[in-house]
Write a structure and sequence with these properties.
CATH class of one domain: Alpha Beta
CATH superfamily of one domain: RNA-binding S4 domain
Strand content: 25-35%
Distance between the termini: 55 Å
CATH topology of one domain: Structural Genomics Hypothetical 15.5 Kd Protein In mrcA-pckA Intergenic Region, Chain A
Order of helices and strands: EHHEEEEEHEEHEEEEEEEHHEEH
Number of helices: 7
CATH architecture of one domain: Roll
Largest sheet: 11 strands, mixed
Radius of gyration: 21 Å
Length: 354
């Protein structure tokens, strides 16, 4: 099946970045646009920058560069099954929707999870959509993370949302978990603009002794295990997470804190890796966590932390300028019941009502 050529214009988020990374960012709606394939397209002369073929994967894009990609024919793939699985829709219009994903649910079908995913449920939800509309997920949450997932209904909207949510964030502004939930549409909202906002709540081990700050560490694949990521000064891609401490308790010999984290970049496992690198691993994280519940004197609290079934990370709030209406759209997923019970057990729950 032949795909039409794709043309994109490098924006500020692309300036100075490698050409293969720029293409992957703008072609996120294409399953075929894996890193290996994108690099092969460049090396085989299928990518032109300002009309000239560029065959170096490491070539850097400049602001305003016009990049054209001639996509190869792709064989038809097995259709994904639509399944009548309930979705909690937070917002929907003709162009996009947002849903509240529970922890434990996979976003997209894979080898070990071919059914019961968010995408299977979206195909059922979209069965009456018309024309070129088809659900396309903008960014993905890990299976064990709950919260907001944004879905585009067309390739054009997907590309616009991808740019907005990867454009970097404005300076942090104070907020509390108890602020009104749901959604707000306001063309004059103070947070509105071209940049997107992605905020998470995390319960972490450790005494976070600063009210707010930034974690600026590069993130790359662990050379010994490609499924894991590592954070270090020279690990790979530049990565920045802003955080605010909402609450903390002594939890003798361990410490527990509730953090609000805001992604400035969107690397794989970024929050979990950054927090672990600072000595504040997320409670229940099976990959980057630590069994610090063993250090807690209160046996009931220690048991609660030990048996929490997933990483205590919730994609709480997403904000962006609507790609069509240009209104500022802010979407919030309420704290799920398991997370709320954990907050109560840790003595952090009172902060959620402030």
């Amino acid at each position: 099946m032949a795909e039409p050529p794709r043309t994109l214009t490098a924006d500020r988020g692309d300036a100075g970045r490698r050409l293969d990374l720029v293409l992957r960012r703008h072609l996120a709606d294409l399953d075929a646009a894996t890193r290996t394939r994108v690099q092969s397209w460049i090396e085989s002369g299928q990518v032109r920058v300002n009309g000239r073929a560029v065959r170096r994967v490491s070539a850097r894009a400049a602001l305003g560069d016009v990049v054209t990609v001639v996509l190869p024919d792709t064989p038809p793939r097995e259709s994904m099954a639509a399944e009548d699985v309930g979705l909690r829709i937070l917002y929907e219009d003709h162009h996009l929707l947002a849903l509240d994903k529970p922890a434990g649910v996979v976003v997209h079908p894979a080898y070990k999870n071919v059914k019961g995913t968010v995408m299977n449920a979206l195909l059922w939800h979209a069965r009456a959509w018309t024309g070129a509309q088809r659900p396309s997920i903008v960014g993905r949450l890990d299976k064990l993370t709950s919260g907001v997932v944004v879905v585009a209904k067309t390739a054009t909207v997907h590309a616009a949302l991808q740019r907005a949510l990867n454009a970097g964030l404005p300076p942090s502004r104070p907020s509390r978990v108890g602020e009104p939930r749901g959604r707000s549409l306001d063309t004059n909202a103070s947070g509105g603009g071209s940049a997107g906002e992605k905020e998470y709540l995390a319960v972490v081990y450790g005494r976070v002794n600063v009210a707010r700050g930034e974690i600026d560490l590069e993130i790359g694949h662990d050379r010994r295990d490609r499924r894991r990521m590592v954070a270090a000064a020279d690990a790979g891609a530049s990565s920045l997470t802003r955080f605010e401490r909402l609450a903390r308790v002594a939890a003798p010999r361990a410490g527990l804190s509730l953090l609000r984290c805001r992604l400035v970049t969107g690397r794989r496992h970024q929050i979990r890796v950054h927090l672990a690198a600072r000595g504040w691993p997320v409670v229940g994280d099976p990959t980057y966590g630590e069994p610090r519940w063993q250090q807690i004197a209160d046996p009931l609290l220690a048991a609660t932390l030990r048996h929490f079934p997933r990483q205590a990370l919730h994609a709480w709030r997403v904000g962006f300028t609507h790609p069509v209406t240009r209104a500022w759209l802010q979407l919030e997923a309420a704290v799920p019941s398991d997370f709320a019970r954990l907050l109560a057990a840790c003595g952090l729950a009172s902060e959620t009502s402030r």
